[in-house]
Amino acid sequence: MVVTAEQLAGCVAELVRIPSVNPLHRGPIAESAGPIGEAAIAGRLAERLSSLGADDVVLDDVDEGRPNVYARFDGRTDRLVVLDVHTDTVTVEHMTDPPFDGRIDDEFVWGRGALDTKASLGVILALLEQWRADGRTAEPTLLVVGSVCEEAGGLLGAGRFRDWVHERGHRIDQLVVAEPTELAPIHGHKGGVSIEVTVHGKAAHSALPDLGANAIEAMAHVIAAYEAEHRRLQTIEPTTELGTSTLSVTEISGGTGGNVIPAECRITIGQRVVPGQVAHECHERLIEIAHEASPLPVTCRSLLPAQPDGTFGSEAFYQPPDGDLVRTLAGAAGTTPTVAPFGTNALRYGGLARELCVFGPGRIDDAHQATERVAIADLVRLASCYEAWLTPT
Ligand SMILES: [Zn+2]
């Protein structure tokens, strides 16, 4: 039997009705709807996946009350494939629509998370239910992963899942990260590093500036040096469709009064890392530039959590578009593989699977908005893509 549009929409709506706002996006509207965070949806998901015949279901605490869910469905072969769907959503405080009603009309399922990214979770649940009813089994062994902490907080769920895979020595053949990609498989995106730079000067009366050391003026040298580095990076010929590495200063603060020489100035600087660059080397280079350019003492700290090996930053993720996974999904969806300007959980999955891509229904531009919806027609298309991937004939 083919799974119906009603089944697909129903499964997505059920997930939308379980609030799972990322704790860093909490607010009064979210709080009035129930507990903040991923605990409720993780619990429900674990229950649902067990009832669908999962051979193993694990709740893995990433942070207090924030578990990842891993559910394994043994296939006809032991080739291991993974579908990773983040369970958290962004804030609902600016929504003009009821965030958690999960209403279904003729064309859409509505509510926070419908598009980003409960659609993919709902579709795989509906398919597993249908396959169970039909007595069918997927060809590969499928691990469904519900990961926490994607929308804010440093991809902790994805990082924990990667470590869990390494601890168990699992070998993943194919890994799909669910995000809205208009059903075009994303076969690469840039990585990144981000640091905060603080210049330390000395306060004085601004009528007597020579008695102080002006941290803002010193920071101007640092910013000019970063601009020069950005321009240098643009002259390097890109090796992939991802283009060049870029560097941007995005925040600045400093000074305590109009007549005080500023003792401190602080900026945030980020770099988008491309294939061929080593993220922790980019991180070190950003620190070096600040020290070289500033006439005053400088301190730096990473704004991203450390990797398991103690280094900072995420490598780019890239693979050629002609692999089996990307070709299968693009073929089933009738789309063209592409690369993305935004980052996803795939930033934590370098080297974890033989093949990796990001794939899901809807447009990323429509995510995080005052209203959120996913087209039921896209759920139907996604179901046929997962069928082509998991139950090839
Ligand atoms: Zn997302």
Elements, N to C (H/E): HHHEEEEHEHEEEHEEHEEHEEEH
Mean pLDDT: 95
Number of strands: 15
The main sheet comes to: 6 strands, mixed
Helix percentage range = 25-40%
Rough outline: elongated
- CATH topology annotation of the largest domain: Aminopeptidase
- What class, by secondary structure content? alpha/beta
Number of separate structural domains: 2
End-to-end Cα distance = 14 Å
List cofactors, ions and other ligands.
zinc ion
Poorly predicted parts: none
At the first level of CATH, what is the class of the largest domain? Alpha Beta
* Proportion in β-strands: 15-25%
Radius of gyration from the CA trace?
Answer: 23 Å
* SS field, number of helical segments: 9
CATH homology-level superfamily of the largest domain: Zn peptidases
**Can you tell me the CATH architecture of the largest domain?**
3-Layer(aba) Sandwich
Order of strands in the sheet with the most strands?
A: 1-2-5-3-6-14
Question: Could you characterize the architecture of this molecule?
Answer:
Helix 4 crosses helix 9. This protein folds into 2 domains: 260 residues, Aminopeptidase (3-Layer(aba) Sandwich); 112 residues, Alpha-Beta Plaits. It is elongated. The protein is an alpha/beta fold and 393 residues long. A hairpin with a 2-residue loop joins strand 1 and strand 2. A 6-stranded mixed beta sheet has the order 1-2-5-3-6-14, sandwiched between helices. The protein is 32% helix and 23% strand. It has 9 helices and 15 strands. The site of zinc ion has 5 residues, from helix 4.
